[in-house]
Every structure is written in C-alpha cells, then in structure tokens.
Design goal:
The chain is mainly alpha-helical and 187 residues long. It has 2 domains: 2-132, no CATH class; 134-187. Helix content is 61%, strand content 4%. The chain has 7 helices and 2 strands, in the order H-H-H-H-H-H-E-E-H. The chain has helices spanning 2-9, 16-21, 37-51, 61-70, 85-104, 110-113, 135-186; strands at 121-124, 127-130. It has a two-stranded antiparallel ribbon with strand order 1-2. The longest helix has 52 residues, at 135-186. The radius of gyration is 29 Å and the shape is elongated. The chain starts with a helix and ends with a helix.
C-alpha cells in the first residue's frame, strides 16, 4: 500500500527519487487506517527525504527551510525556499484523503464515511478547494497568545507582589514580637 501513499504525497509525480526515498514500512498504513500525528510525521519525513540535500540530517520542512535559508549562496528568493511544516502538513492531510479514496474505494462508501472538509478542504460556493493557511488569522492567533502570556505574567507578578507583601508583613510582625520579647527579658 505504499505506492498509493507515495503517489498521493508527491502529487502523482512518483519518480525515482520518491521511490528511492520510500521507507520500508513507515507509510504502509497511510490511507488505510485513521490519520494520526505519527502518520503525518512519517509522511512529512518522506517528503523531506525526497528533496533534502544528500548529507543532511533534517527531518521536517521547518528544518529544511532553515538549512536552505542559511546555506543560500546568492541573493535569497523567498519562492525558492520550501514551505513550512504547517503548510506541508495540510498537504499531507489532503494526500491522506486522496490515498484513502483510492485504497478504500472498492470496500466502502467513502462519501458517507469521510468528508473532504475533515481533511483540509473547504467548500466555497459549489467548489471544493484546499484549505490554506490564513496568514492574518495566524498573526492574530500569535498576537492573542502573546497577550495571554503577558496577562498571565502580570497575574503571576501580582500574586508574587501580594505574597511578598504578606511575607514582609509577617517578617515585620515576627521582628516586632522578637523585639518585644527581648525588651521583656531585659526588664
């Protein structure tokens, strides 16, 4: 079952490099069992192995992107960089759905068991289109996370201040009681 997986992941361009990079059994379940994070990781690693430099040890598209960025010899063209892992993972999810349709078509009614919208597609009007990463939504999410982190830090800092204030008051009370006890012992 690895050939349909390789075929769907490479966009039906199963050439020598893709077949050579095909691991012995890591994609055996691709399109056969339910999609898991492990399958997505293995599919990403397979795609990286196809296009990475020969001696490189990179395993994700983010690592490959970084490697290509820092090893670029001339003026950098962003279009020559590979996509990020988040983007390729959407492709892997769509490729899984395609592979599933090919492999399971004789055995199941695919229309009732799996919706393309669960596999990184969206319906726009009467068309089915790939779901793309919305950069603005991503930036808004990052901003929201940053705001939440700042709020958390402020709350924790406020808790620390309260705890510190209470501690200082306890220490002052303790010192006062010690001073009173010293005074009482002297008299």
């Amino acid at each position: 079952m690895q050939l349909p997986a390789a075929h769907s992941l490479t966009g039906c361009e199963t050439k020598h490099a893709a077949l050579k990079s095909l691991p012995s059994d890591s994609l055996i379940d691709f399109g056969v069992i339910d999609l898991t994070d492990r399958l997505i990781d293995q599919a990403e690693r397979f795609l990286v192995d196809i296009i990475k430099p020969a001696q490189s040890e990179v395993k994700t598209f983010n690592e490959l992107r970084e490697l290509k960025y820092y090893n670029y010899k001339s003026e950098l063209e962003l279009t020559k960089l590979p996509c990020a892992s988040t983007t390729i993972r959407l492709h892997v999810i769509r490729a899984f759905y395609q592979c599933y349709r090919w492999v399971m078509a004789p055995n199941r009614d695919i229309a009732t068991t799996h919706s393309p919208e669960d596999y990184a597609y969206q319906v726009t009007g009467e068309y089915l289109e790939p779901l793309l990463i919305n950069l603005m939504a991503y930036r808004n999410l990052v901003h929201a996370v940053n705001v939440l982190v700042k709020m958390y830090v402020l709350v924790e800092l406020q808790k620390f201040r309260v705890a510190f204030t209470v501690s200082v008051k306890v220490v002052k009370m303790y010192v006062k009681t010690q001073i009173i006890q010293i005074k009482l012992t002297k008299t």
